[in-house]
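Budget justification aside, the reviewers requested a transparent look at the raw inputs and outputs of the sequence design task funded under Objective 1. We therefore reproduce one unedited record. The lines immediately below are the structure tokens for a 146-residue chain.
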């Protein structure tokens, strides 16, 4: 019983829904979810007010100016939109076309987060939810943002 209680305690202490607190890139911000329940992006109406068009309009140019590693694949940027329409708890994972993990430097991850934080028209619908933005690369060049 004590072991089970320890596992549950440790799990709640280190995880925020599906984002492990140890993996959060923006740890030094004041961002906090409003609740302990964070809905998956596909089970809520939260998101960006002008959807993908608005996201691309704001971040496309600065994302294209970044220097990415020379690989073809996707960079997944996952984060939380809270009930106050703030974003945080960023996590980035990159994979190549063979679904093998690709390392992205901490500096590049912070630059990507800073660009995405320029997006201000979030609509959390009074609840916390995950959201993700994909950056598709071909030979290190941005091919799409979705």
């Amino acid at each position: 019983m004590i072991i089970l209680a320890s596992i549950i305690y440790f799990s709640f202490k280190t995880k925020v829904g599906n984002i492990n607190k140890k993996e959060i890139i923006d740890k030094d911000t004041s961002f906090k979810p409003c609740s302990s329940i964070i809905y998956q992006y596909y089970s809520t109406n939260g998101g960006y007010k002008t959807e993908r068009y608005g996201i691309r309009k704001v971040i496309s140019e600065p994302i294209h100016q970044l220097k990415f590693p020379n690989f073809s694949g996707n960079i997944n940027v996952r984060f939380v939109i809270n009930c106050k329409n703030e974003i945080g708890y960023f996590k980035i994972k990159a994979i190549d076309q063979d679904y093998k993990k690709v390392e992205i430097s901490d500096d590049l991850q912070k630059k990507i987060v800073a660009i995405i934080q320029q997006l201000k028209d979030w609509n959390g619908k009074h609840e916390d939810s995950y959201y993700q933005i994909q950056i598709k690369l071909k030979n290190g060049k941005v091919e799409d943002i979705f």
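DSSP finds three helices and nine strands in the chain. The two ends are 45 Å apart (CA to CA). Computational costs for records of this kind are itemized in the attached budget.
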